[in-house]
Structure formats: structure tokens, C-alpha cells
Design brief:
Blueprint lengths: L3 E6 L6 H10 L1 H4 L1 E7 L3 H18 L5 E4 L2 H5 L4 E4 L5 H14 L9 H25 L5 E4 L4 H11 L5 E3 L3 H13 L6 E8 L2 E9 L2 E2 L1 H11 L7 H7 L1 H16 L4 E2 L3 H5 L1 H7 L6 H21 L14 H14 L3 E8 L12 E9 L2 E4 L7 H23 L2 H10 L6 H14 L9
Parallel strand pairs: 1-2, 1-4, 2-3, 4-5, 5-6
Antiparallel strand pairs: 7-8, 8-9, 8-10, 11-12, 12-13
Helix pairs in contact: 1-3, 1-15, 3-14, 5-6, 5-14, 5-18, 6-7, 6-16, 7-16, 9-11, 10-11, 16-17, 17-18
Length: about 450
């Protein structure tokens, strides 16, 4: 059969329509035989699928779209599975955020207590996805996983499914690179970075634009404005104050620690007090998604069902989908594109343990990722990373072993939580909220 069967796992995501558009943009280079949406939430997926079908009908009606909740149907003979599952949905995301904030700690979907709770919900469902692919998919299948929290999920899969053909990625560094390109007045494709760390916990060490080192120029800009061009700052303050606040925190971190440029998620770990002070328990980011992106796509689906015209371009935003599709294309055709991916360290960062789950540059081949060696990193950054990697490792062990003690140790180690007492209080509330999602902890 010519072309590839591509499955989007988590087909009911509000991002699906945009990813499908990016797949269509590269359909000839990629070679798509058929596209499948798979989700365990039929009602939600069917709603989103109306918009996805409109995108395909508008741009590439020749591509067959199939929508299913049956894993055998979805994964049989699949070549590529793009995984974006959100276990517990936005309802649990909001609960994670609010429980954390009630205890005065960071309420965020991938960092801190919320990230650990989300990770503990996701580990075994991700194992199930791997097992479906092993049973039904092509022997040379690839799972491109960008399900959050990517660091914990990746570490769990390296331990529980070490032979799975899975490549773990995150689009946040690429989003920052896009902001760098805007600042420099160039294209994203002109940017190449050196980077080390964990997922949502890393640093840009060097940035090149068309081969020219622009690191110092960017550092100077970021210390003043964060990751946003001076011309766009006022617009960002109006359109999305949360991101404007994030850019401001990037400026603070870059001023305090001047060796490298931070991933924006470091704000939750290095400035947790400022983040908590800014956050609103009655209007968390999860609530904003429900009232914003989710509402827009649900409204669009309802309008399409009524036969009305809808502006589909509102769902074609960001570099998220383009990055994911580029990774799939490089895996499919052995293109050796250089991307930031999440892999076992195995000596890439010399003074970290081999089993650390690091985010570093790699060349994407049809055999997977070929990591770029980073060398040794300074003591401060090493200490930060080792603490966070230990925290994430304990989360994984807590789930596998059903261990309350290891979950408590993980929550205590996390930099967003100020004390063991608070860690226990948050953990106990999370256990109650996650009944039916977490294994029993003893």
C-alpha cells in the first residue's frame, strides 16, 4: 500500500484540527494514505471530528478520514501514531490547578503538584497505547508522543516499555525559538539552538541565526523584554496577559542567571512565589481553555452541523503542529532533521546519570533519535536537574509500586512545594481527587 496510515490518539483534543491542517500542508512530502482519529471519549471526539472533516474537505478532500473509539480499528497497520492524550480531561486539569492553589503552591498542568498528579494518571494509559501498537500496528510503527507531562511519561516508558518505538517531544522549546525568530526578524527555519535539561526544565546555551551566533544579542533583549519583540509587547499585554507575565518572568530569570537563556517553564520552579501570587484560583489556565479554545471549537462544530460557514483558520495557529509533523516526516523519510527531543541521557550530558531523561538536540532518523553530545554542565544547573529528575523518577516508582512514601518523597523534592508538611497535605488531597485514575497508594 502506498502512503502512511496516521493515527491521532486523543482525537478529541482542541489542537487536532490545527495538527490535521499541518499534516495536509505536507501531505505530498509525507505521503498520507489515510487519517484516523482515536479517543476514548466518543462524544467529544465526534464533536471535534466535525471541524476536522471540514478542514479536510476544504484542503484535501482526497484524504480519507476515519473516526473510532475501537483500538483495533484505529491501530491496525498504523505507521505513525501521534499521541496527545489528556487523561481525566480538562475537568481534572482544573481540579489539579485549584487543589494546588488552595495550598498556596503552583497550580499548573505540567509543573509542580498538578504535573505530578497528571503524570500519575497518564503512565498506565500510555503503556496501554504502546501495547495496542505492539499488537496491531505495523512492525516499524512510531509513536510520536507529546502527551503531557512529557518528562514523567517518557521516564515511565523507558522503564516500563523500553523496547517501544516511541519518540517523546515537546513543542515549548520550538515555540520559544519562534519568538526568538520574531525578535531577530528572521524565519524559524533560520534558527538553530544548543540546549540541555529536562522537559520544561532546560536552558538554551547557544543560538545561531543562519549560522551566525546571536546568543549575546538575544540575552540582552530577553533581559529587557522576555521572549517577545519590543513591537509586540503592548499587543501581548492586551491579548494574553498570562503570556505577557510569562515573558516578564523570563526576563527576571535571565537577569538573575546570565549563563544561559531559560525555558519559560522555569518560572514555576525558580519564581514559584511570584507565579502563585499572579494565579487566580477562580480563573485558572484550564478554565481559560474551557472558556476559550474549547468553546470556539465546540461552537464551530455546532455551526457546521447547522450548515453555516465557519472560519477554520482560527484553528491554524502556532508552530505546535508544524513541529510535530516535521518530526513525523523526518522519521518517515530519514531526513535527519535536528530537533529537541526527550531521550535517556546515556552519557550525552557527561556529569548526569545515564538514566536521567533529558531534553537535548538530536538528529531524527528512520531509526529514531541520534542525540547530540552536550558535555559537562556547571554545578548549579546540574544540581537543579538532578533534583527534578529524582522527583520525576520517584513519581514513576510511586505509580509502579503503589507507594505512598515515594509519592510523598516526590512531592517533597519538587521545588514548587515549600515543605514536607505542605507536600503531604497536597498529596492527600490529590489522592482523594484522583480516585479511579491513580493506583491505590499504600
Amino acid at each position: 500500500m502506498n502512503g502512511y496510515k496516521i493515527v491521532i490518539c486523543g482525537g478529541g483534543s482542541t489542537y487536532t484540527a490545527g495538527i490535521v491542517k499541518d499534516l495536509i500542508d505536507q501531505k505530498d512530502e509525507l505521503g498520507i494514505r489515510e487519517l484516523w482519529l482515536y479517543d476514548i471519549d466518543k462524544e467529544r471526539q465526534d464533536t471535534v471530528a466535525v471541524v476536522v472533516k471540514a478542514v479536510i474537505d476544504d484542503l484535501a478532500p482526497e484524504i480519507p478520514l476515519h473516526v473510532t473509539v475501537d483500538p483495533k480499528e484505529a491501530f491496525t497497520d498504523a505507521n505513525f501514531v501521534m499521541a496527545q492524550m489528556r487523561v481525566g480531561g480538562l475537568k481534572m486539569r482544573i481540579q489539579d490547578e485549584q487543589i494546588s492553589l488552595r495550598h498556596g503552591v503552583v497550580g499548573q498542568e505540567t509543573c509542580g503538584a498538578g504535573g505530578m498528579a497528571y503524570g500519575m494518571r497518564t503512565i498506565f494509559p500510555m503503556c496501554e497505547l504502546v501495547d495496542f501498537c505492539e499488537e496491531y500496528a505495523c512492525k516499524d510503527y512510531w509513536i510520536v508522543n507529546y502527551s503531557n507531562p512529557a518528562a514523567i511519561v517518557a521516564k515511565a516508558m523507558h522503564k516500563l516499555r523500553p523496547n517501544a518505538r516511541i519518540l517523546d517531544i515537546c513543542d515549548m522549546p520550538v515555540e520559544i525559538e519562534a519568538r526568538m525568530a520574531e525578535i531577530l526578524g528572521c524565519e524559524l527555519s533560520d534558527i538553530e539552538v544548543d540546549y540541555f535539561g529536562l522537559n520544561h526544565f532546560g536552558w538554551f546555551t547557544n543560538v545561531r541565526c543562519k549560522g551566525v551566533d546571536v546568543t549575546d544579542k538575544l540575552k540582552e533583549h530577553v533581559r529587557k523584554f522576555g521572549y517577545i519583540s519590543e513591537a509586540s509587547l503592548n499587543d501581548a499585554l492586551v491579548k494574553d496577559p498570562d503570556w505577557a507575565h510569562t515573558f516578564k518572568n523570563a526576563a527576571t530569570i535571565s537577569t538573575l542567571f546570565q549563563d544561559y537563556l531559560p525555558n519559560t517553564y522555569y518560572q514555576y520552579y525558580l519564581l514559584p512565589d511570584a507565579c502563585v501570587e499572579y494565579m487566580d484560583i477562580n480563573n485558572t489556565r484550564g478554565m481559560q481553555v474551557v472558556n476559550g479554545r474549547e468553546k470556539r471549537i465546540f461552537d464551530a462544530s455546532a455551526a457546521l452541523k447547522r450548515g453555516e460557514k465557519v472560519d477554520l483558520t482560527q484553528f491554524y495557529v502556532g508552530v505546535h503542529g508544524r513541529f510535530i509533523v516535521d518530526v513525523v516526516k523526518s522519521l518517515a523519510h530519514d531526513l535527519r532533521h535536528r530537533q529537541l527531543v526527550i531521550v535517556p541521557n546515556n552519557g550525552a550530558i557527561e556529569n548526569l546519570s545515564d538514566d536521567a531523561t533529558v531534553e537535548i538536540p538530536a538528529y531524527i532518523t528512520d531509526r529514531g533519535a541520534e542525540p547530540v553530545r552536550v558535555g559537562k554542565i556547571p554545578r548549579f544547573y546540574k544540581g537543579l536537574i538532578e533534583q527534578q529528575d529524582a522527583c520525576e523518577g520517584l513519581v514513576v516508582e510511586a505509580v509502579i509500586e503503589g507507594s505512598y512514601q515515594k509519592a510523598l518523597e516526590a512531592f517533597t523534592l519538587n521545588r514548587t512545594i515549600p515543605s514536607a508538611r505542605v507536600a503531604k497535605e497536597v498529596l492527600d488531597d490529590m489522592i482523594e481527587a484522583n480516585k479511579g485514575y491513580w493506583p491505590e497508594l499504600k
